[in-house]
Amino acid sequence: MSEMRPIRDDLQATLDARRDLGPDYEAALVESFVERLDATIAARVQAELSGQGLAPVKAKAKQRQNNGAAIIPVALGSMGLGIPLTAIAAGNAGLVGLTITWLAIVAINVAAAVAIMRRG
Predict the structure, then answer these.
(1) Same domain assignment for residues 41 and 88
(2) Of 10, 19, 76, 90, whose CA is between 20 and 30 Å from 52?
(3) In terms of residue numbers, what domain contains 20?
(4) Looking at the whole model, is its pTM more than 0.90?
């Protein structure tokens, strides 16, 4: 029962703030309370899972998501450098230079993707 005390205090504070601020702030107050409630529930679930020796699934999914986001700057950088390199290679070395340039860009992107995925 003592575990419910902070949630009840938060709810009471939210209701008091709603009464003081009026209905204009109701949506923001409710959203704030729901976020605190979600955080409390997530902490309890996490504590229960770690008490049972289960790995946190959310942390692994978040790490995979971050790995995917790390590939984007490499791809954008490759495109940014690829455009002028294409013009230079095609103008100076023709089709052979163009092919070598883009094979190098592809190799760098593949190596970066493999390195990023290995970290996760």
Answers:
(1) no
(2) 10
(3) 1-54
(4) no
